[in-house]
């Protein structure tokens, strides 16, 4: 029987050119508004709570959806997803961010190719800003700190008999990288994988991931 493969990818900074939070902070936030993030970095606040508090401050910004839609994406990502669909390789996008901006950016691909989005739900209006909602605590991918456990997604796929290709860029991605069969890493994740002697394929864009999928 042929091996079953799945592709699991982080979104912010991996599929998109940079984190939505970083880009939004640079455009809309004052230094004082970043205090919840400093509390998270110092261990005084959970990642989800810090992000939710800051996202909620994105109020009164009618241009925010247009700003999101202009965030650059990896130009090779659509081709990679289309190839996976043709080869019946399921694709999972896992993010500690939220579905609102991810759907604005790749909602068409998600619908067309049946991509599974595993992330925090978010309600948005100009009046309230972004209001994130945690997964239920009994959800298999629930994480108390960041909201979504990417490692749990990889583990679940492996328990179902899949081999997993994972792509990521940040420190939280080291957890799913430890579980995956093939790891594509860049930025800080690449350094962490090398430090832990995790066999890793450095990548600049999804061209390398696409090449790997072709060979599976």
TrEMBL record:
Leader sequence segment: none
Pfam families: HAD
InterPro entries: HAD-like_hydrolase_phosphatase, HAD-like_sf, HAD_hydro_PyrdxlP_Pase-like, HAD_sf
EC number: 3.1.3.-
Lineage: superkingdom: Bacteria
GO molecular function, one term: phosphatase activity
Record keywords: Hydrolase
Name assigned to this protein: MtnX-like HAD-IB family phosphatase
């Amino acid at each position: 029987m042929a091996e079953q493969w799945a592709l699991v990818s982080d979104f912010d900074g991996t599929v998109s050119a940079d984190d939505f939070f970083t880009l939004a902070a640079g455009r809309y936030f004052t230094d004082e508004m970043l205090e919840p993030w400093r509390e998270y970095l110092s261990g005084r606040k959970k990642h989800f709570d810090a992000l939710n508090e800051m996202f909620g401050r994105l109020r009164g910004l009618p241009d925010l959806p247009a700003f999101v839609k202009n965030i650059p994406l990896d130009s090779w990502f659509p081709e990679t997803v289309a190839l996976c669909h043709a080869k019946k390789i399921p694709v999972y996008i896992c993010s500690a961010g939220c579905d609102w901006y991810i759907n604005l950016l790749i909602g068409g691909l998600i619908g067309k190719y049946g991509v599974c989005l595993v992330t925090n739900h978010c309600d948005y209006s100009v009046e309230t800003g972004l209001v994130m909602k945690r997964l239920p605590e009994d959800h298999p991918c629930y994480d108390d700190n960041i909201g979504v456990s990417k490692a749990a997604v990889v583990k679940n796929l492996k328990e179902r008999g899949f081999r997993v290709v994972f792509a990521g860029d940040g420190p939280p991605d080291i957890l799913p990288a430890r579980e995956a069969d093939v790891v594509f890493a860049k930025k800080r994740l690449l350094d962490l994988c090398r430090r832990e002697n995790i066999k890793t394929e450095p990548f600049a864009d999804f061209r390398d991931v696409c090449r790997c999928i072709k060979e599976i």
